[in-house]
Input
Amino acid sequence: MKRDGWYASRAYPHFDLPLTFAAARAYVTDPDRVRRHSFHPFLSFDIVRRRYRASSRGVTISKKSRPIGVAAHLDGYIFAYYAKILGDRYEARLAAEGLKPCVLAYRSGLGSNIEFAKAAFDEIRRREQCIVIALDLESFFDSIDHATLKRNWINLLNVERLPVDHYAIFRAITRYSEVSLKECRSRLGIGQNQRAPRPICSPSVFRTVIRRSAVGLPNLVKTNAQNHGIPQGSQISALLSNVYMLPFDSEMTCLAAAVDGYYRRYSDDILWICRLEDAACVRQELNRSLDKLGGAIKIKEEKTECSIFCRNAGGRLECDRPIQYLGFTFDGSNARIRSQTLSKFWRRVIYAVRTARRAASRSIAAPRIVYKRKIYRLFTHLGRRNLITYAKRSEAVMGTGAIRAQMRRHVPRIAKELGVQSAGRGQQKARP
Output
């Protein structure tokens, strides 16, 4: 829970230490201090996820890498405080221009993906015939144009030029520097499985070892020299991505009103629902508005989906292909969790079960037992936050019964993977 809407104390290792609320507030509320503040490099790392795609040639495996930048503690307090200042103005702008229903991501109190998807599917049901266009923006945060962001920032503050403290933050988030967390740990001799000290190193070690190595090794600090891109993961990045898209959201909302369309944007996911005869105009205007944003922003064409929905002679809503949106698919009658999500879930189950069985087989204790309580907590309705509990919430909102059918008999299937022979309270035996 954030104090005063911006302060949160976290103990992650970085080049500095956390501050108390009083000390952080005294610093971030002083514009002159912020103006003169020297920002540390972000500690960067990649979140890598495997993707599996079935085809006639078998299953192909690819990897999706998402770069994350973690700000130093004091830098993070500054980013968070100014994100609150800008966020209040941003919400006021959305209300003034009638954009509040259209921008879904990085705003509190709106609901979850489940409610957003349900609202879109209800809009499709409301229409006799429509086309649904779902598309993604490629490398969204890496493509944010600095000049456009600065111009929108100025407009949001209703000033002629950025105040010096705001400009310092703009420079820190656009001409940002970063250090690879993996390379930093290696340079400092911290093993990948070893707990890093807090701070991760002293200022003198940072200057002589990380930035300018005393033994002639290359400088680990890399600076963004391009005119686009902001780090994903900072306390202000999400808000700035919305500020960057303000003109686009405004133009799309006006277009939706003109053609009786339905426009929603969740970060880099864009959804349009309109009449078939308006589809070409919508795509043309959408591309034109994106071009005006500048930078490297572009549509990820391979992920663009278009689905046509219409009612048959019996009044049933049908489509030429189900639409995918925010983790769900919709065919006109039923909303379901994406099959890719289910496949990933069951791969995780199988991996966890095999790991537990291997651990049991290596145990020197007799009898060798696979304890399944943890597996059931991670992968069944007995846990608190997993796909099954998410599916239960989704079914409660969607109410079609299709999601319940997808998760039917998940406990017996997991028990089968475990190879359960007999049960006891709190533990289960399984073949190792």
The longest helix spans residues 73-97. Confidence is low (pLDDT under 50) at residues 421-432. DSSP finds 16 helices and 14 strands in the chain. The CA atoms of residues 225 and 274 lie 41 Å apart.
